[in-house]
Specification:
Blueprint (H helix, E strand, L loop, with lengths): L16 E5 L3 H13 L3 E5 L2 H11 L3 E7 L7 H11 L4 E6 L4 H8 L4 E5 L4 H13 L4
Parallel strand pairs: 1-2, 1-3, 3-4, 4-5
Length: about 140
C-alpha cells in the first residue's frame, strides 16, 4: 500500500483512496505511480482474491475501484459487483485494452462506473479518475 496525505488533483478537500486491480504488474506499477504523484492514497491487487483481501482491510476507506475488465478469476465486472454488495456507493473505473465495450456498457450504466480504454496517457488517467470521483458531488 502506498499513501500520500495531500496533493494536486485530490477532489473533495482530502486524499481519496483508489484500489487498483490489475494483473499486469508493469501497468499496475505505472498507474500506482501516477495516482500517488497526484496525491491519492493507493492500494493495489493483482487479482480478485487479493483485491477482496485488501478491500476487507480497507473497505470503508476505498473511494474508487480501478479495475481491469479481464482478470484471472472473477472479471472486473464481477469483482465490482461483490465489492458493491459491501459498499454500494463505491465508484468504479473499468480499464481494458480489449474490445469489451459492449459488456462494459451494461455495468457503466450503474452510477459511479466508467470506462477507460488501454493504452491511456498520464493525462487521460488523471482526468478520468478525478471525473469519476467527482461524479454525484454537490
Amino acid at each position: 500500500m502506498v499513501e500520500k496525505e495531500s496533493g494536486p488533483g485530490v477532489p473533495g478537500g482530502g486524499p481519496k483512496t483508489v484500489l487498483i486491480v490489475e494483473d499486469d504488474m508493469a501497468v499496475r506499477k505505472a498507474v500506482r505511480f501516477i495516482l500517488h504523484k497526484c496525491g491519492y492514497r493507493v492500494l493495489e491487487a493483482g487479482d480478485d482474491v487479493e483485491a477482496m483481501d485488501v478491500f476487507q482491510g480497507h473497505g470503508s476507506m476505498v473511494d474508487l475501484l480501478l479495475t481491469d475488465v479481464l482478470l484471472p478469476g472473477l472479471s472486473g465486472l464481477e469483482l465490482a459487483g461483490k465489492l458493491r454488495e459491501e459498499q454500494p456507493e463505491l465508484k468504479v473505473l473499468y480499464v481494458s485494452g480489449y474490445s469489451q465495450r459492449a459488456v462494459v456498457d451494461q455495468e457503466v450504466s450503474h452510477k459511479g462506473s466508467d470506462f477507460l480504454r488501454k493504452p491511456f496517457s498520464l493525462d487521460e488517467l488523471q482526468i478520468k479518475v478525478k471525473a469519476v470521483l467527482e461524479e454525484g458531488r454537490d
